[in-house]
Design a protein that fits this description.
By secondary structure, the protein is α+β, with helices and mostly antiparallel strands. It contains 15 helices and 14 strands. It has three domains: 117 residues, 2-Layer Sandwich (TATA-Binding Protein), CATH 3.30.310; 148 residues, Trna Endonuclease, Chain: A, domain 1, CATH 3.40.1350.10; 109 residues, no CATH class. 42% of the residues lie in helices and 24% in strands. 30% of the residues are buried. Bound molecules: zinc ion.
Amino acid sequence: MESLEYYVGHAILKDLKEFDMDLLINHLSMNTKLRPIIKEKEEEIKKLLSSYGFTFQKMFFTFQGKEILVDDKSETLMCINRISLYPKYGILEIFIVYKNKKILENIIELLKEHPSIKELKDGTYIETRKILQYNEDLKKLSPHGKFLKDNNNINLCKKLYDDRTRKLIRNIISNFENLPLPLDLIKTEIAKKKEEKEIVEKICRDPNLFEKKFIFVCKRCGYPSFDISFNDKKTAEKILNDSSFSFNCANKECNSNEAIIKEVFVVKKNVIKIIRHGIWLEYMIAEILNTETRKVWIGVMHDNDELDVVAVGLNKSILVECKDGTFGQNDLYSLMIQAGDINADVVLIVTTQPVHPNVKSTLNKYKEKGKRIMKIIEGNSTEIKNELNKFLNNLKKEYINSFFIWKPYRFIPDFLEFE
Ligand SMILES: [Zn+2]
């Protein structure tokens, strides 16, 4: 079922009372190769649905307000649910599985031009309302959001998804801040294993991650002079050979005045920022959410709170807190307040460090009390990716199933106003 190509949309009806479902179904089946099956025997329906990969233990279909149309080659399936927003508004929820995009486009065209349909929009009604609301509420970017407006920074984040790269650069930063360092020094101080030495060499020579500079080093004792650095070797040579320039070794015991030029590497400022603030993790999560949801916001303000990632899709609003570090009790409290403020259906805590059992038990208490789905995803970046994809796949299964299961009021939203 995971590999299904599907379309979800909702059609706003012109007038609920005037609307005739049978007429619409006739119109659709006359102009496509689809035929309605809801009046067929339950066993037949089950068989037909299973040819698309859908399996249901029990069916809750009623004849009213729902229709499923299929073609004989099991290539296209369409499910229509009528939802009434009393007293006079109504929408049709449309779910279409397709193999051929042309056929999908044809169905959408037929729906759009049907006289009882006012408007057809992508996504469910709930999703559309939530997106409109968040577009308004989450307009302002946080500092991280502004930082990620720059494509160069996004590309840096992608390079830093790699756990080993990040770990090595983090070690360089914590040992030497952003001093210009010769490659051999970085290798002996940071890289312990042989393969790490190779990675260090590779990342230092990546002009996106490190700046290459040239400094003077004492010829006798090797002591570096950090006072001046040059972007190119030629300038360094020119200065060194200039008769008005004199070098003095900064090592007091040495006092030599002879220098040589040495290539050094400096971690770029934005790389430090991305690692220190865990911005790479926020971008990685947003990127994954983007594949399964309708809209993703990254680095936005809600009132005075900075939200890491927010998404709407699969009929849910999802708030994600990312921590490349320890997620503690206080983080949980403020996250729960934020989730309440934006009325998130799902709260995800994504962290590279194990979460303390006390925090987990507090989270479980929240879970028991409310309807909100809450989940902790912890581990290295590969583990996080896999866990999040698994979680989204489960949400997707539930979402797709929900179109087939008939519940009379599954959909009545708390906002009944209509434009
Ligand atoms: Zn010296």
